[in-house]
Amino acid sequence: MWTEVDKTVKQWLKETRVSILEALEHTLNIDTKSNANDLVTNVDKETEQFFVSRIKEHYPQHKIVGEEGFGDEVHELEGIVWIIDPIDGTMNFVHQKRNFFISIGILEDGIGKLGYLYDVILDELYCASKGEGAFLNDKVLPPLQQGNIEEAIIGFNPASIHSEDAASTFIPLLKDVRGARSYGSAAMEFAYVATGRMDAYISKGLSPWDFAGGKIIVEELGGIVTDLRGNPVNLLERSSILVARPGLHKKLCRYFQS
Ligand code: 2AM
Ligand code: CA
Ligand code: CA
Ligand code: CA
């Protein structure tokens, strides 16, 4: 069954790519959500509606959690649940027309089974099937190796610097690591950790659709995904995120224990 679902998701992703590239040729319809910098476009909504209608048609028993609200009200992870971010990195989508991803995680009874992070512009699909490895397009991704702070490049959200505890958490950490990056798409940052281009990614205030797909992929590679305090994340709740290579994760957690 999972092989068939996997094939179907990949086909749907390719279909959405065609529509999204086409939409980028026209004027986007842009709205704001929680604040003036929290953007949403017609393409976010249409892409989510596309997935919801296809899933309902092919897998009527499955439940769907989607950022734009076209899915179901899901209060428990029993059965099969799809967690979808139709465009992750909407600000990049609007301003840069690149560096945005489609993110999908599929869980069975709360266990991640299939994960997808799709770089629409580059046509690069990062995916994992639990117990069967992770891939970038057709290439197998090798397991993540141990890492240390001094040689680490970490991804983070620059807004974190304004948080009340930044002086005792983010600032010391940024001094100790080799370098820091911010790509503006949680999915992209998870994909970069999965491929070893970055060693960790740290963010406050993410939602399940920001991390569900990435968590499945990174965990399949032996990486660790928790909140900033090192606790397991709940896939139905907002959470901070600390994702890193094994070993490095524990060292990074120490910066956030105070
Ligand atoms: P989004 O583009 O799907 O909204 C940007 O640093 C990252 O944080 C993106 O992955 C973005 O996802 C996510 N994010 C979560 N909550 C956000 C918010 N309120 N405003 C902007 N980006 C948010
Ligand atoms: Ca959003
Ligand atoms: Ca997102
Ligand atoms: Ca989104």
Automatic annotation (TrEMBL):
Q: Which superkingdom, per the lineage?
A: Bacteria
| Positions bound to Mg(2+) | E67, D85, I87, D88, D210
One GO BP: phosphatidylinositol phosphate biosynthetic process
Show the catalytic activity. a myo-inositol phosphate + H2O = myo-inositol + phosphate
Question: What protein name applies here?
Answer: inositol-phosphate phosphatase
Entry coiled-coil feature ranges = none
| Keywords, alphabetical | Hydrolase, Magnesium, Metal-binding
Q: Which organism is it from?
A: Lederbergia galactosidilytica
The answer to whether keyword Magnesium applies is yes
Q: Which cofactor does it need?
A: Mg(2+)
Query: One Pfam family for this entry, by name?
Result: Inositol_P
